[in-house]
User: What shape does this take?
Amino acid sequence: MPIFSEPSLAMAEASSPLTDDRPPDRPAVQSVRSPWLTRLISPQSNQLTLVGHLALAGTLLLGSLSLNVWMFAFASSQERDWLNLNTVAKTRADSQALVTNIQATAAERSRMVDQFMLIQARVETHVQVMGLFYKLNFIALGTVGLATGLASISLFFISKVGWEQVNNALINLFILSSGLVIFHSNLILIFKFQDNIQLNGQLYTEYTQLYNAVLSYWAIQPSTPNSPTPADFILATDQRLTELGQIALDFDVSRVSQWSQPLEGAGAEPSP
Assistant: This one.
């Protein structure tokens, strides 16, 4: 005879806890941002904050400056090879030693040495100015090319999503890269890099020819009966120095005046 009745067994089974073989639910893992990242990117909109915009702008400008410094150093190391500089500077003592064999008076020798030192100084001046504008032009063109690429890529993604929905970091990148393009392009136009390179390069070539002509005269004058007299050569050299003596710098100031006109017009009081 069973000790427990069937209703008692049913109540016991109902009161006993059910065994669940399923693993317990794990708590959802929430991404935790560091405080500095929260200052850069808003957790609600996932957009850059004001600090984030400043950080992105500073990073881009610092990268542009670092690139400019590297390009300037690289261009300086390659300057003599790029510009084909082949003159060798001589001291006054070297020049005085070269004119000792010339059949001329002491005053004529002294004047020829003075002319030669002046020619050498002008050669050095024009090659330095030409090299400076060459390096600046190299930097500006390189920066314009890189910034144009960044602006084009940013504009491509902005056009796909739209200005209202795109991440504002892309808008920031587009504005900054476009500003770099405009800034360096204006530098090229205002300071006329190409014209100054060409003008100083031409004067460098002319002075180098005169430099070599003086050295050749010093070398052949004692052994060449039909060579010009020292007096004639000095006068011809003075005339050539006068022809080549000019300021080899050119700037387009009119562009600055054109850009300042809208600002002047905005600040002017309206006429009654």
About this structure: Confidence is low (pLDDT under 50) at residues 9-18. The chain has ten helices and no strands. Residues 106-161 form the longest helix (56 residues).
